[in-house]
Amino acid sequence: MADVKLANRLAEILTMLVDGQSVTIAGLSEQFGVSSRTIMRDFDRLNYLDFIRDEKGIRLDPKSMGIMSTKDLCNFATISGIRELFPSLDRHFLRMMFDSTQEPSYLVKGRKSQDLSEYKQLFDRLSKVIQKQHYIRFRYHNKDYAEVQPYRLVNYKDLWYLAAVDQGKLKTFQLVEIKALWEEKNRFTTDDVVLQQIKNEETIWFGEQKLEVVLKVGPEAAYYFKRRDLVPAQEITKELNDGSLLVTSTVNNDKQIIPIVQYWIPHVKVISPECLQSTIDEQLYSYLGC
């Protein structure tokens, strides 16, 4: 039992230090209900790390931090879009997740990302020019682009894109299709409005005119639409007496909504605009040979 208490105490002290906190012998002694001599022995057990002692207390030398802090891990989870997968990313949760002495309790399935191993060099080069705010030129779909301002590498539906300004217009370029990348020496000034547009837009179709689509979702599929958002910018506007739903979706391109409606046939139908449902019907009739 004593060994378990020691291990837990050392883990808690180490977590605080890795998180960049300054601690004191007296403060830790009071926190854990042990003597100052016991805390001093704990630090002797951690002597493989380099500590900085000043008027604030004891803190970990950043040079000896071979692992990321809780803040770093949360930041990575946010950037990579996986933070919402978990109910919490607090210190206790992260410690359980990264405990290599136990079998993990969590398993995420159904996420299949694009394999970029052969494009690592391109990925790294684009990351660096984005940080340096340098213009670039490249070839894309047999067309040459010059004086392009690279803003962000964006992952959308498990594919990577470059969000960049070309001739004053924000566009996206699929990463694996970018050829003959060349970095220019001149720099550009980042536009905060463009950055906010990239961050706030749910899709990669930047700057295109938005289209509001109204769907009628049958009672057989209503549960799934109420459980989570299945269409872009989903909003359930009305629940009908038979259990069906009226759902609105705001899209930039009809390609965002047509495949979803086709997947849920016959339980989902486009109410507005009518031309969109006509397009879906025509595609279905063509497929069936009618």
Written description of the protein model:
- By secondary structure, this protein is an alpha+beta fold.
- The chain folds into three domains: 2-64, Arc Repressor Mutant, subunit A, CATH 1.10.10; 117-200; 211-288, Alpha-Beta Plaits, CATH 3.30.70.
- 36% of the residues lie in helices and 27% in strands.
- Helix 2 crosses helix 3.
- The protein has helices spanning 2-18, 25-32, 36-45, 70-79, 91-97, 120-132, 192-200, 219-227, 258-263, 274-288; strands at 51-54, 57-60, 134-140, 143-156, 159-166, 169-174, 178-187, 211-217, 235-239, 245-251, 268-272.
- Strand 9 (235-239) and strand 10 (245-251) form a beta hairpin.
Task: Give the SSE map.
Layout (H helix, E strand, L loop, with lengths): L1 H17 L6 H8 L3 H10 L5 E4 L2 E4 L9 H10 L11 H7 L22 H13 L1 E7 L2 E14 L2 E8 L2 E6 L3 E10 L4 H9 L10 E7 L1 H9 L7 E5 L5 E7 L6 H6 L4 E5 L1 H15 L2
Antiparallel strand pairs: 1-2, 3-4, 3-7, 4-5, 5-6, 8-10, 8-11, 9-10
Helix pairs in contact: 2-3
Number of domains: 3
The number of helical elements comes to 10
In which range does the helix fraction lie? 25-40%
Biggest β-sheet: strands ordered side by side in the sheet: 6-5-4-3-7
Q: Report how far apart the termini are.
A: 75 Å
What structural category do the secondary elements indicate?
alpha+beta
Averaged pLDDT: 85
- Low-pLDDT residue intervals, each spanning 5 or more residues: none
- Total E-strand runs: 11
Strand percentage: 25-35%
> Major sheet: size, sense and barrel closure?
5 strands, antiparallel
Report Rg.
Answer: 27 Å
Question: Any idea what the shape is?
Answer: extended
Order of helices and strands: HHHEEHHHEEEEEHEHEEHEH
